[in-house]
Amino acid sequence: MKSILAILAICFSVVSTAQTKYLTKKGFVAEGYDVTEYFNGTAVEGNRMYNSTYEGVKFAFKTEANKKKFEAEPMKYIPQYGGYCAYALGVKDDLVTVDAETFEIRDGKLYLFYNSWGINTLHKWQKENPEELKKKADNNWGNRLNEK
């Protein structure tokens, strides 16, 4: 049983001494979902035909117009904490993969969350004082970036 739990922990957490600024699961930030569409309230897979590179990582978009919108203001659309789970970063300072369909727009920023195996961290985030968790996650992320 302990070995199964250890394997699951490794699957859920991205463990790396050379931390990356962005989670690029499936080769794209946000698993290839169109980061501009989140601001319309929907999680929509991008078309890899419409892609853009920013800070060395790829983003996919539903349309050419969305790609241009992103390229005009990339910082507006980039997920907080490089696309890692906001809840895990706030609670445990862990870099955890996300379900790109589990998100929240808060204060004009995109936050992504882990949602699998019956654990939806967006619900936990919303229930456990998101403003306080956001402050902790901001601090933890800043510390990680400063370590580089």
Which structural category fits the helices and strands? alpha+beta
Helix segment tally: 6
Radius of gyration: 15 Å
Q: Would you count the extended β strands for me?
A: 6
Distance between the termini: 36 Å
Order of helices and strands: HEEHHHEEEEHH
Low-confidence stretches: 1-19
* Main sheet attributes: strand count, strand direction, barrel closure: 2 strands, antiparallel
- Spatial order of the strands forming the largest sheet: 1-2
Mean pLDDT: 89
How much of the sequence is in beta strands? 15-25%
**How many domain regions?**
2
Helix share bin:
25-40%
What structural keywords apply?
148 residues, alpha+beta
Give a summary of the structure in a few sentences.
This protein is an alpha+beta fold and 148 residues long.
Report on the structure:
The protein has about 150 residues and is α+β, with helices and mostly antiparallel strands. The protein has two domains: about 55 residues, no CATH class; about 70 residues, no CATH class. Strands 1-2 form a two-stranded antiparallel ribbon. Strands 3-4 form a two-stranded antiparallel sheet. β1 and β2 form a beta hairpin. α4 packs across α6. The longest helix is centred in the last third of the chain and has 18 residues. The relative contact order is 0.15.
